[in-house]
Design brief:
With 241 residues, this protein is α+β, with helices and mostly antiparallel strands. It contains five helices and nine strands; from the N terminus they run H-E-E-H-H-H-E-E-E-E-E-E-E-H. The mean pLDDT is 93.
């Protein structure tokens, strides 16, 4: 089991990053927007402006650290599976493959040094076994996140659903880049109430990057981690006993 310790430690460290991400997001989401109010007497209106605050750059950076640490843990697992196959120095291509479609020529050098029985387990875990739903597979999501983070910061934005203005008529509304502004009658300004649904942070691919859109919430990061921790690692423990 000592050979599995390195990969398990790497995956455990990914959890440290995930916990750090939760703390950073919790701090931001505790007060994610500003509300400013002002009168314009000449227009006989009272204006309210709702704007989301900029998301700290630490949030996409920590998310990237989590993804790469977890992915590295899987590659270290593959390396150790080659080592217990009496391969003192596994080839540099040795890694944990993740494929959305079944490769016609197999995994090639990625698994050539790994125990054949362990390769069968790796194959059984592949996203392509879900058919058209491969994009819902935690390993595919992890690989996609790593591919994005390899080249750029995650695009990150806040969403809060529809903000409801209560009790008064709203004759004026203007959308802003990161929020909106509404205007009500001056006589209604003391009666204005509003409801803002729970805010969420969305991670994804920048809009100006080619390819399909890709967006997930942080709950999916937890799903990915639990899958690796609870579904992947236990499948290989017997090889290290």
């Amino acid at each position: 089991m000592s050979r599995l310790k390195g990969a398990a430690s790497k995956i455990g460290w990914a959890k440290e990053h995930l916990d750090h991400l939760d703390r950073e997001m919790g701090e931001f989401l505790n007060d994610p927007y500003t509300i400013t109010r002002k009168d314009k007497v000449n227009e006989h209106r009272h204006y309210l402006r709702f704007e989301f605050k900029p998301i700290p750059v630490s949030i996409p950076l920590i998310a990237g650290d989590f993804c790469y640490c977890l992915r590295s843990g899987l590659d270290q697992l593959a390396w150790q599976l080659a080592r217990i196959n009496k391969v003192a120095q596994p080839r540099t291509a040795t890694s944990f493959p993740i494929f959305s479609t079944e490769p016609p020529d197999g995994f090639k050098d990625k698994t050539k040094d790994i125990l054949p029985r362990a390769v069968e387990v790796i194959e059984a875990l592949q996203p392509y076994h879900r058919g058209a739903a491969f994009k819902e597979h935690p390993l595919w999501l992890l690989n996609e996140l790593c591919n994005i983070d390899k080249h750029m910061l995650f695009a990150v934005h806040s969403v809060a659903g529809t903000v409801s203005i209560l009790n008064v008529e709203v004759p004026y509304r203007r959308d802003l880049q990161f929020g909106f502004e509404v205007g009500v009658s001056l006589s209604d300004k003391l009666n204005v109430q509003w409801e803002i649904p729970k805010t969420a942070i969305i991670f994804g691919k920048p809009a100006n990057v080619r390819g399909e859109a890709f967006e997930i919430e942080v709950s999916t990061f937890h799903t990915i981690y639990r899958f690796v921790e609870d579904e992947v690692i236990p499948e290989f423990e017997a090889f290290f006993k």
